[in-house]
Predict the structure.
Amino acid sequence: MSASTVIPALPQPSLPVVGEAGVFPVRRIWCVGRNYLEHIREMGNDERDPPFFFAKHADMLEPDGAVIPYPPLTQDMHHEVELVVALKSGGLNIPTDKALDHVYGYAVGIDLTRRDLQLASRKMQRPWEVGKSFDHSAPCSAVVPAAKIGHPSKGKIWLSVNGTERQTGDLSELIWNVPEIIWKLSQQVELAAGDIIMTGTPAGVAAIVAGDKIECGVDGVGTLKVSIGPAAK
């Protein structure tokens, strides 16, 4: 018999699954920083530095079609389209040749970023959470099972705002590919079923404002549409 809760039980964040009635429950959201060469260059960072990881909270997910309220404290929110990896199992120190055995499927996500706050934190050598981890900051499409599409390692990744393409790249341009990301992240933390990993963004990141309509996608995986609404009150 499970213990009762002293506050109402919290909902389980989840993503829909293409072709399935059931949903994919999300445990943690991990994000890879600086994993496309041209994005590293446009942000003025050292392209020789390896990618690193940061996190968002699972309840920051937003579904396809969502209206995202413009967040507080920022005047410079940016879009970052990413391939998302959804895990069905995990572990510590997963070798690259076994990494894809742990992947349930893939999705399209946007790492919304309060760029002004992120850059200010970086200058002060503080953590990035204030710039990266905020309410509604992780829009994500439905998950498509790898059993249906395999494990994409090439294909266009793109994002447009109000019909104008801003970001474009190819999965083949990932500095660290999906097996390498899983291998490296599993050295840092024990991965588990329900974890999702946002794998980095190509060049072309830019500001978005209330009223903007965003569409993005990854060839062979799917598309994601969201719009930016007024600030929450």
In short: The radius of gyration is 17 Å. The CA atoms of residues 115 and 123 lie 12 Å apart. The chain is about 15% helix and 30% strand.
